[in-house]
Amino acid sequence: MKPAKFNYLRPSSMEEAVHYLSEYGEDAKVLSGGQSLIPLLNMRLSTPKYLIDIGRAEGLSYIKEDGESLVIGTLTKHTEIEKSELVKGKCPLLSEAIRWVGHEQIRNRGTVGGSIAHGDPSAELPCVLTALRGEIVIVDVNGEEIVSPEDFFLTYMLTSLQPDQLVKEIRFPRIKPTCGSAFVEVARRHGDFGLVEVAAVVDLCEDGRFSDVKLAIGGVNSVPTLLEDVERLLVGKEPTEEIFNEAGDLTMELVEPESDLHGTAEYRRELSGTMVIRALKQATDRAQGGRVM
Ligand SMILES: Cc1cc2nc3c(=O)[nH]c(=O)nc-3n(C[C@H](O)[C@H](O)[C@H](O)COP(=O)(O)OP(=O)(O)OC[C@H]3O[C@@H](n4cnc5c(N)ncnc54)[C@H](O)[C@@H]3O)c2cc1C
User: What is the mean pLDDT of the chain?
Assistant: First the structure.
């Protein structure tokens, strides 16, 4: 199918984009890489009167360090993140996760801001951002606002973004060099969205116990979800087979999956426990490898 008729606007700066949004926001859609929006337009699931194509707006594509965070401009392509040495060094979890996003062609056009704004609960970047307690910087004509993932992702494909707001940049807290991290996913085919995915970061005390654990899961709830009860269970404990199994069991109690074409709720629940164990073991192995015990 072809999209319904729309007016095409192509701002050359963020300020111009925000101005258009303040004027036409209720009737408009922002276009970044188009990897999710164009199919929706073609199927007429979205029929905006105005399409605000920010793809060539200047100054919205960057990866830089700011204090304890990696700051990534909204128009930064997945491929740029994948290739970035800065990301590899400061946030290896993000480098590992980004390789699971669709196929190379999609990663060459899709953007970090588009992925976050789209709010798919199975998407990789929202899961990593949630685990790391990152931040989303939003802008409108009145200025900037910083929103946490928990306040931003409301339910399936619905975020707190207002019609006149634009995602400006995403802040991913860097991971301490003593930590180990892992991103694991199960998808039906290579390039598909994950059935279940888990992002884990662990730090260990000198005596080998967990001093810090960050854990989030995607694909099983209506939003990417922090597993705070599992984090609390682990901190202060030794990384044993028994505690990993307890973490998996607790995860299965916490998730609320639904059945769909790709798998039953029971299957996703089982998979959640298995994937949490796998992510925690891998992250712990990496933390142990990087330390002199
Ligand atoms: C076959 C296929 C497989 C895919 N597999 C995966 C996958 O495994 N994992 C995954 O995460 N993604 C996957 N995707 C989606 C893809 O990764 C997109 O990169 C991503 O969802 C959106 O980025 P985009 O820049 O293309 O956004 P667009 O398609 O341009 O926009 C997506 C949505 O976000 C809004 N938006 C975009 N930018 C902004 C902004 N700056 N401010 C406010 N709103 C904005 C748009 O209005 C629209 O509603 C897949 C896509 C395809 C076609």
Answer: 96
